[in-house]
Design brief:
Layout lengths: L6 H10 L4 H22 L7 H10 L9 H11 L3 H9 L13 H11 E2 L2 E2 L1 H12 L4 H25 L3 H4 L2
Antiparallel strand pairs: 1-2
Helix pairs in contact: 1-3, 2-3, 2-6, 3-5, 3-6, 4-5, 5-6, 7-8
Length: 172
């Protein structure tokens, strides 16, 4: 199995790339949410790599002050030998989720990112309202975001059926 980036190594990247404290807090919240869901799924027959989720979640916005932060951060991770973390980070802004029976580590990190606003778990509705309020009020963009929100609601319901608890209750 490939070596995973550690929290200490990610903390070093934060220092090296001047990651703002509020972004670090966001990365930690995303990681907490992603791991909470992944651990619950692992208790119900999934085999998700928690160390990969932890590393990619903590690192995903390290370079957020850069243009195309996802590519900048992925390049940093690749150069350091963390190919799988880099692959997750590279797609986290535009990722399309797998069906519930094929959820993987990328799904977990991206779920965490879609359920956290700043450094707090807020759920899908509040998070998507926040995104929609920031997006240009162009009907096509708003419709796309509304469609994506509905797909997320369905996926979360399916996860809740598997784990036997609401995501809200799981993450309290």
């Amino acid at each position: 199995m490939a070596r995973r980036i550690t929290e200490e190594e990610v903390n070093q990247l934060y220092k090296e790339y001047g990651t703002p404290n509020h972004v670090i807090a966001h990365c930690r919240a995303v990681t907490r949410v992603a791991l909470g869901i992944a651990e619950a799924l692992n208790c119900h027959g999934y085999h998700l790599d928690l160390d990969l989720i932890r590393g990619a979640g903590l690192a995903h916005d390290t370079a957020r002050t850069s243009d195309e932060h996802w590519n900048v951060c992925a390049d940093i991770l690749e150069k350091s030998g963390f190919q799988e973390e880099a692959a997750i980070v590279r797609v986290h802004m535009t990722y399309q989720f797998n069906p519930v029976d094929r959820l993987n580590e990328t799904d977990m990190v991206c779920l965490g990112d879609r359920l956290v606003k700043e450094d707090q778990y807020v759920g899908v509705d509040e998070r998507f309202q926040y995104i929609m309020d920031k997006a240009p009020h162009i009907p096509e963009i708003q419709a796309h975001l509304a469609e994506h929100r509905e797909k997320m609601r369905i996926l979360l319901k399916q996860i809740e059926e598997i784990i036997g608890i609401s995501i809200d209750d799981l993450l309290k």
